[in-house]
Design goal:
single chain, about 600 residues, Jelly Rolls, Immunoglobulin-like, binds alpha-D-glucopyranuronic acid
Length: about 600
């Protein structure tokens, strides 16, 4: 076909405009499991690289910043078999299972903190009119990703998903994916170097190759309007060029079948009046089938609808005051001492919480697996979701703030359709300074700009003088809850002194105690004056629960913690052996005496 000069220019202009017209910045694909995926889970070869020699030359300069972008060991890793002096060769290396942290799969890796390279070979049959993305559920902590020897990019943050579009780097048939992971803790990262949990490194969550049409449904938010059960409010965002065709939103059980015309940016916003809707709550966690479609793509989801708000010292779920019977937990399977890896072990954790009598869980101290939130939706558990702004973060460092804000934003974007999440927490036990108040205050503002349908909180700092606990952390003025950790009977005083405690809480807000408890070695029995015995922990719970019941405005508790968990800070060779023993259940699944005290308390506690 011949184009005259003018029409060529016009064609070029239209192409540029149409590209600018419909192309827009890409957020992460919402609901990965609802897409067409090739799972890249399974067996990955790995190379331990403590001196990072696969990435740095002998002058400590990154190979991929050198002129040629190649050289030495780097080629062996990113382009195996392409260089003669192969000092690395994945083919002769052992393997790690993905998903799964690297520390719990080999004894020699238990304490490993450093660089480790993964390689996964996979076959793919490419289709012309499709787009392809590599999606990681999470990799702790810093990861550099290479596909067929070409660098895709870098991600920082050990608990949130990330993706790269890879259509231009995939080849028909055999492909290989290489991931350099570095789980070294660093002062200016998020979290910083000191945490009371194991620094599990590696590809800890699912990896998928996602196939989408050229234009597809990239993101959507479908929830009730803020504290208003009379309308569903949200948006749908398309990726690619879609022109004028309509997008359909269906919620069959609600007889919703609406068509919308996307705007120039492929976005649709809507407010749909609803009359008879069954609201989601822990007793009846109703989820609706939702379908979004247009000519080229369709995606299904299961979404619950509920409202959450505060009124004075009450937390209102669907307009009714609720008491949150909670428990805290880490993302760790105590029976293996490693990150939770599948629906099976996540369901185990949440079943333990349900069996305890909980309607609420604190998923500490970082964003948990998306599957955990989908299970909480299904099983009826309210959720406190949190980012690892924990203890002594580098408050003055701009990069640190950007990192924290990114982890928070990605977490909210990923989970915004999960009815179970009612609280976004911006951090835990952070020392009060002006710089910290600015840092965390900005995070609070960020949450509210992204999602005004949920509560915003943090585990605030407290002061105590003798038996008086004062809660007056200025950050609390920006938050919806007066939420804090308190360790009467363990770090502060003996269990028998707990009845003397009182609380001076300076906020007219609902009070949620986000941690209390104490340690016990399961099976160690003695009198209730002997630390580490089950009886000592049991007395903490008996007296804590009595004492907290006197706190005006107490509307929720998440005792610390459901199960014993690994921590490099817990060395006592008799009682701990690198396990934090505050669990109500041991790392062998044994319920300690305190478990039954809390279970009985919840059985008799009204949720009103
Ligand atoms: C702190 C902290 C927890 C920690 C707990 C403990 O409150 O928030 O992450 O594990 O105390 O000392 O066991």
């Amino acid at each position: 076909m011949y184009l005259s000069k003018n029409s060529t220019l016009l064609f070029a202009f239209i192409m540029v405009m149409s590209f600018n017209f419909n192309s827009f910045s890409q957020k992460q694909i919402q609901n990965i499991n609802g897409r067409k995926t090739l799972s890249l889970n399974g067996t990955w070869q790995f190379i331990i690289d403590p001196y990072k020699m696969g990435y740095l030359d002998y002058r400590q300069k990154p190979f991929d910043e050198s002129a040629s972008g190649k050289g030495g060991f780097y080629d062996n890793i990113t382009n195996p078999g392409k260089t003669k002096r192969a000092e690395y060769n994945f083919d002769f290396e052992p393997s790690l299972t993905v998903p799964g942290d690297l520390n719990s799969q080999y004894e020699k890796l238990e304490f490993y903190e450093g660089v480790l390279w993964y390689r996964r070979n996979f076959k793919v049959s490419l289709k012309e009119d499709k787009r392809y993305f590599i999606h990681f559920g999470a990799v702790n902590y810093e990861s550099h990703i290479y596909l067929n020897g070409k660098k895709l990019g870098v991600n920082k943050g050990g608990f949130t998903p990330f993706q790269f579009e890879v259509g231009d780097k995939l080849v028909e048939g055999d492909n290989f994916l290489v991931v350099m992971v570095d789980n070294t803790r660093k002062k200016d990262e998020v979290p910083t170097i000191n945490t009371d949990w194991w620094n599990y490194g590696g590809i800890t969550r699912d990896v998928n190759l996602v196939e989408t049409p050229e234009s597809f449904i990239n993101d959507y938010k479908i929830q009730l309007a803020t504290n208003d059960a009379s309308k569903i409010k949200g948006y749908i965002e398309l990726e690619g060029s879609v022109g004028e065709e309509s997008v359909v939103l269906q919620i069959p059980e609600l007889k919703i079948n609406q068509s919308y015309t996307p705007d120039a940016n492929g976005k649709v916003s809507f407010e749909i009046p609803v009359k008879k809707i069954q609201l989601w709550n822990p007793e009846s966690p109703k989820l609706y089938e939702v379908k979004i479609s247009f000519s080229q793509d369709a995606v299904n989801d299961k979404i619950g609808f509920r409202t959450i708000a505060t009124e004075g010292k009450n937390i209102l779920l669907n307009g009714e005051s609720i008491f949150m019977k909670g428990i805290a937990m880490h993302d760790e399977n105590p029976l293996i001492g490693g990150r939770l890896r599948s629906e099976g072990d996540m369901r185990m954790m949440l079943n333990w919480a349900k069996e305890l009598g909980c309607n609420y869980v604190r998923l500490a101290h970082y964003t948990h697996n998306e599957t955990m939130l989908r299970l909480a939706d299904e099983m009826g558990l309210l959720v406190w979701s949190e980012v690892p702004v924990y203890w002594t973060i580098s408050w003055e460092n701009k990069e640190t703030y950007k990192n924290a804000e990114n982890q928070l934003s990605v977490s909210i974007e990923r989970d915004k359709n999960r009815a179970s999440i009612i609280i976004w927490s911006v951090g835990n036990e952070t020392p009060v300074t002006e710089a910290r108040n600015v840092f965390m205050g900005n995070l609070v503002d960020k949450v509210r700009s992204l999602d005004d349908t949920r509560l915003v909180a943090a585990a605030l700092e407290v002061e105590f003088d003798g038996y008086t606990v004062t809660v007056d952390d200025t950050l609390g003025e920006k938050l919806d809850l007066a939420s804090f950790n308190q360790y009467g009977g363990w770090y502060w005083s003996e269990p028998k002194e707990l009845p003397k405690f009182s609380f001076d809480i300076k906020f007219n807000k609902p009070v949620v105690i986000t941690e209390f408890g104490g340690g016990a070695l399961a099976g160690f029995h003695a009198d209730d004056d002997t630390m580490w015995s089950e009886e000592y922990q049991e007395l903490i719970y008996i007296n804590q629960l009595k004492m907290m019941d006197k706190i005006d405005g107490l509307r929720g508790i998440t005792p610390w913690i459901l199960v014993d968990f690994k921590s490099p800070r817990r060395q006592n060779p008799v009682y701990q052996n690198f396990w934090n023993r505050k669990g109500l259940i041991s790392n062998t699944g044994v319920k300690k005496k305190a478990y039954f005290i809390l279970q009985e308390y919840y059985r008799n506690k009204s949720v009103k």
